[in-house]
Prior knowledge:
The structure holds 2 protein chains of 2 kinds. Chain A is of the alpha/beta class. Helices cover 26% and strands 26% of the residues of chain A. In chain A, the strands form 2 sheets. Chain A has an 8-stranded mixed sheet. Chain A has an 8-stranded mixed sheet with strand order 7-8-9-10-11-12-13-17. Chain B has helices spanning 8-14, 48-52, 131-134, 173-190, and strands at residues 20-22, 42-44, 58-65, 68-74, 85-100, 104-111, 120-125, 142-152, 157-165. Chain B is flat and about 80 Å long. Chains A and B meet through helix 5, helix 7, helix 12 and strand 14 of A and strand 5, strand 6, strand 7, strand 8 and helix 4 of B.
Amino acid sequence: MSGNRYTPPSKNEAEISIFGPGVGECIVLHLGDFEWMVVDSCIDRESKKPIALQYLEKIGVDVTTAVKCFVATHWHDDHISGAAQILKACSSAQFVCSAALIGAEFLQLVNLLGERSFMGNSGVDEFTQIFEELIRRSPNVRRQSVGPTWARADLLILRLPKTDRSIRAEVFALSPSDAAITLALHEIGQLLPTPQTPKRRAVAQAPNHLSVALWVTVENLHILLGSDLEHFPDERLGWKAVLLSPTKPSGKALVVKVPHHGSANAYCQDIWFDLLTPNPIALITPFSSGRKPLPTEDDIKRIRSHTSNIYCTGAPHGIRPPRLESPVERTIREMVRTRRVIQGPMGHIRVRYPLGIEGANPTIDVFEGARRFT
Amino acid sequence: MESANFSPKQFQEESGNIQSRVIEPRKIGAPEGVFPFPSGFLIAQKAESLSESFSEPQAKDTVTGSNGHFPRIVLPTPSQFVPTSRFQVLQKWEGSIIGVSADECRAVVGNMTSPEAPEEEVTFSIQEISESDRGLAMPGAVFYWSVGYEDSLQGQRTRKSTIRFRRLPTWTEKELNKARQEAQSLRDLLVRK
Lengths: 374, 193
């Protein structure tokens, strides 16, 4: 499977392109009628550009007008690298982020840790630039109205009605729940530095329950984008809260971006029955970080019990680092327990689906190290 | 304490690559072999640790030079501060801690020797960090990791790895209050009440 990577979709063809270099993910969706949305961002190692911009430009999309919406599902570095560049380039796109970031505490964190002088890039730093861009875009509007769309459960964040186009498209936020927002506000407050503590680079430690999971409907196609939303025993949080919502969108999704890189802590059996069609197309981005990179073999086995259509943007275990001088290699072997390159080739899975045709078959192509798990 | 016959040239040679500036005593009129004090015997520019190893020089008596009287300086024995080895760096990384558990650290490291090389993630035992730096090993902390050869003056070579944490200033109450106020102003712009 390897169609021409840079042939654009037709007007009546939905596309879900998911990119992952090992640590990081980005999703680009064609909502029909040559209009697009972008979810999260990561940087291409070779070009140093956000992969969403690179891909859209290569297939001939004018990102200044055709990208309608850009969602930053949460502020972890692996989901937001290059987000500010995307927002600047996609000048007519609405910016959406989690309502759990609405608190003064997060803005304070952005203010404190967004200083780029000594702390390097981070998710917080991206938000500094995003907020600057939002303010720059709206110099004359009244206060309190330049902000992002703060996504929360059951909020319709984008509607492209059929009156303006030939294809209906809607995007709903499924999370975070009210309880998750309350909890996140408290937890982000705890990340704030206190006097006399050393300055450090910002490390996103906020929990995944503030992530924005999305439900995208393009005509007769439903797509579930699970972000990093986790599963909790508490029914007010995570996937349980999504499933119990009386106002969640109806229908079953043919395509799912498996939440949190397929990890066990994001696995909720009921979403496979209640929200997805039988044998759906499961798309995974790996997380080649930590002692236990994701997805593990157990994770794949568990997902395989629900579908045989499992695709991953790259090798879960990352890439072997380049070899260094022999004495250096010996020292590394003696002192380092694990070592891996975290950014590999930008794996790309592309799903295209002809709209308005009942029972149509999707076309799935994989590029640059992306693979199907058989 | 011994008095030292220790010429500036010798000192400069023995202090290796430490960037320092030595003023020749003869140029300021002192007799050869006698160092005037405190008129700038050594201005160490990047040798804080070295200069800290000096004890206070002792003025025992004076000597007379062409430009007048100078205190005779008794220097501490050089064995306290003369480097006894040379470190040849083979590889250097800049790292940032991303996670710490009971016995190990997880960090992202960038190759400073070959900046074009991709970033790597490594985990290593907390024991690899010196006790004095261990308290600094927290998420977000920046460190430098060098691997190389240490050559002693006796000619012995040892392969060595060193991890040193960058010491950044601490947050002040004033900075935190300012951030609080600026966050409120930003919130007034971004959030509809």
